[in-house]
Structures are given as structure tokens and as C-alpha cells.
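User: I'll paste a sequence; please echo it back and then give the predicted structure.

Assistant: Echoing your sequence first, then the prediction.
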Amino acid sequence: MKVREFFTTVLPDKMPDYEMREAQVQMADLIHNVFQEGGQALLEAGTGTGKSLAYLVPSLLIKSSTPIAISTGTKNLQEQLVKKDLPFLHSVWGEDFSYMLIQGRSNYLCRTKLYNTLLNEEDRTFLKQWAEETDTGNLSELTGKIHSETLKTVAADPDYCLGQKCTMRDECFTALIRSRAEKCQLLVVNHHLLLSDLMIKDAIGFEQGAILPKLDYIVIDEAHHLEDVAAESFGKEVNFDGLFALRSQIYNSRELQRRNIEIKSKIEAELVEANSHINRAKELIRKKEAEESERIELDSEIALVAGNIKSCYKEVFGLLNEYDEDTIDAIALARKAERIVSGLEAFIDEKGDSISWANREGFHNMPLKVAEELNRVLFQPHKSAILTSATLSTSGNFRYIKSRLGLKEAKELTLPSPFDYKKVLLAIPDDLLDPNSQEFITKITEHLKRILPQIKGGSFVLCTSFKMVKALKEGLQGHVNLYVHGDKNAPDLITDFKADGNGVLIGVDSFWEGVDVPGEALKAVFITKLPFPVPSEPLYEARRKLVEERGGNSFRELSLPIALLKLRQGFGRLVRRQNDDGLVVIYDSRVLVKNYKRDVFNSLPKCSEWRGHLDELETYIEENNFWREKLFK
């Protein structure tokens, strides 16, 4: 079967009401060609293109001896693929095919840890029984039945993986998952799992620690997240929680106690000393945060305390290596101690191509560029990599994303949304030029008080800081039904918001993207400010300095593209289906007068537009029959 044949013949035959979308077929055709010829592709597919089917169909049609990995940036898309798109495709495909969701190995039980960890006997007996009954070993099956901290102590861990040497290899759940995955056609994963798995294979080989099978073809959806996920994956961090977890694992190890209690006592003494330095580090960070900001730069004081912690864990590493070579806990915990030492060394010896900082979570070191690493572990070893998203381009081209990811020869395709955005009123006031002033917050609060109760449906108010969220919450309380970021977890907040039908959700970051609220439940999106990156954010600040040191324009090359991608995501919350319409207000008047105004409008769909003083917007809608009927109660 050909790609076009599926969309023009098979799908209409199975679904009489299906309307072929040429953009979807174009995307599927290009992916199929890249799969056949090899190489990479950058594909921007606007909302409504049907990009999931556009990459799933060629993924099933390509003749491959290895599975095709579909990687997502968010859990929402992962669930959409596994619970909706793939079951639908399976029902119309005409022949059987296999697919599975693979989660990180910490989601699965490790039998070795179950036997070697100190647990109360009731939990151990329960877990042993469950291990004989479960088909997957996925610890999510035990939510609410066993304490979450207990589950962490028996979760699979690459440091504990001995590969072929493991005495329980034949009963290993992660080996079982990988064995099943090898026989599967499509694997759904997330970016973190994909990159961490590729890093393991690159560093220590396939047998130890890798959960994904060999791959030739990879599709990366929500690829606008890839650079940030790569920076996290390729960077090093030593979290205080991780230090505490290692200490607990050592204290609770039955095997270390049984094999050599004297060595274990020496290790515990080192950990006591380390703990005093950790407490000093936390105290120092709290003090510096009060004086400065959330980011603590590397200085002599911080370097000294980090060095002391490193020395203790270096001793711990050496002592763990004194155990017999078949002591599994010693092997695994030595790997963890070694990684802590390595992470602290990277933090202290900050190189020019990385940035180090400390905060209340711990010590961090991240690369400023990920292009070289991505090419080594992702692009070069695999026959094809497809990168797609609804938002990959900025100012109408792919230059920014290509430069950040190191893609030079990738094929490019931009497919606009098939939706009619003339049904969207894009309103931008011309009298709010200082978004950092108190007057700005006061004016938009008063405007929201007036307009929100009139909207025929729900509204999103997207902010760039929790300070703004708090101010708007205080100003709007009692005027509308509020659903505020932080009051509940995000899924529950969205569920309640949808059920309300006329609610107002105020949020930052995660609500700018990946949230799907079609129809009347979301009729208006209010964007408070252009979402430029926070200047004090460590990774951004270091990347900005790097651009300027080589004579570049950091605003044009970094700050503006980041803001445009996020703006497009926020705008995209409104129109999710063919019949959706509504209002988008961008309160930030700078987009009308600054030299980047053309970039902003080139990045957004062609909508119906309004300009004027903020207090005239409701009058305009009231006096326009079309918009009054669409937007107001």
C-alpha cells in the first residue's frame, strides 16, 4: 500500500465522513521519502493538519527490521497516541500491527533490589506475590497499595543492572519489556527516556542499562522541546534529594551489612561527615537566595562546600569498591557515588561551554550547546529522524531551530493549519506600552473584570510569572469562577475548568501548551505579556552571553525566537477543531511599535484584527453583530 492510497482510498472507505487533507498527505509523503532515503526532516504542521496519522502511517509502511520510535514531549500527547490515535489506526488498517508504550525503567520493579533492600516483611511478602502475578512489573499497578517511598527503593535502576551477569536476568521486567519492544512495530516513548537511553548506549553499550531496543527510525513530535530536554540529559546535577536517597540505600542495604559490616560502618561515618557539609551548603544557598535571586552563581564559598561533599563521596566510592566484586549493592551504589563525584567536579570546574549554578534543589552544570551531542547520539547513528511540531519556525523560517539542534541538511516543510482563523478576533490595545509597570497590571485587571463575565464560554489568562498570577487572582476573586495554577494539580484543574464551561483559568508555563480544550469551554485567550525568557534564568543567561561574546545579537538570535515559539503555543490553545472560534487578546502593546512587530505577525495565523485603546474593545464587540454573537453572552 502507498501512503497516498491510504488517505485517498482506505480511510474514506472505512470512514464515509472522512475529508482528505492535502497537507496531511504531503507530510506523510515526505516522511515516507525521508525514511526510504535516510536523513532528517523538519516538519511544522499547524493545528488540524492531522500530524499524528501523517507520521504513524509511513512508520507502518516502511520496511524495517527494527521498531520505529515515536517520542513525545508531554504526557498528554503520549496518552492521545496510545489511547486514541493508535487504536483508531489499528481499527482501519486492515491488518494487525503491534505498538506499546514504554516508560522509564524506574517505573518497573527490580527483583534484585526487592531481595537486597531492607523492607518490612509485610511489604516484601506482598511485593513478592505481586511480582509472580503481574504481567509487566509496572509499579503504577501498586499506586495506593504500597507507600510511594517503598516503591522507589525497589524500582529498576541502570546502576543496578549487571546485564548478562545478573542472576535474575531471566525474570527481569525491564529485559522483558525490551524483549517485547524488539518484536513491536511502533514504540511510544518520551524525549527524556529516548535521550537518556541513547546516552547509555553511547557511553556503556547496549547490554547494560538500555531499555529500548536497537532503533533505525525515530519520529520526534513536540520537537520544540528537544533542545531543553537535551540540555537536561547531557548536563550533570547533584540533587540534595539524590544524596539523601543514596544515604538511605546504603543504610538499608542488607547485602552490605551481611558481606562486611566493618566497611559499611566506615561508609556510614563518611556519610555523617558529608551530611554536615550538605547542611552547610543548604544554609549557604538559603542565605545567598535571600541576598540575590533563585540562582546562586559559582563562587569560592559554594565551590569549597561542594568540594568537601565531593571528597566525602570519593571516600564512599573507594570503600564500596573494597567489597567483593560480586556484591551487587556495592557495584550499584559505587556507580551512584561515582556519578555524584563526577557531577560535583563538573559543577566546580565550570568550563566555558557550560554553566554551573546552585539552588535549593542542589548543584547543576549544563551545556550551553547541545548540537554536537545530539548529532553523536541521535542524528548520526540512526537512518532517519523526523522532527515535527505545530511550532518549529520563527519569523517564517527554521533557522533558529536548525542552529540550536545542529541540523544542516534536513529537509523542510511548513504546512499551515487548514482552519479558518478569520473566525478569531486578534485584539491588541495600543495604550499598554510598559508591561513592567504597576499601572499595566492595574489596567488589565480592571479590563478582565469587565470583559470576562461577558464571554460566552471559558477563558484562559496566560501569564509569564507567578507574581502576575497572584495579582490577577486577588483582583478577579469574586467576579468570575477562577481556576488558578498551583491551587490543584494541572489535570484536575483542566477537568474542573472544562466541566464549568464558563470558568477562567489563570496559569503560567505548562498552560501555554499541551492543553486541549475544544469548543465553547474555551472561547477566549488573554495573553498578558510577550513571553520573553527570564533574564536571570541560568541557562538562558549563559547562552545569551555566549552569543554576545562572538559578536551576535542575542535578542534576535535567542530571546525573540524563544518568545515567538511560546507565543504561538499560547495562541494555539484557542482553535483546536474546525468549528472553533473566539477571541485572543495580547495586552502587550509593544508588538505594535517595536522593530520585531513584523516577526510577531509573521509567526501568527492571519486573523481578524482589532487595534485601539483598551477601554474601547468591549464597545467594538458590542457594536459588531458578528463578534457580539460569537463572543458575548
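The mean pLDDT is 91. The chain is about 50% helix and 15% strand.
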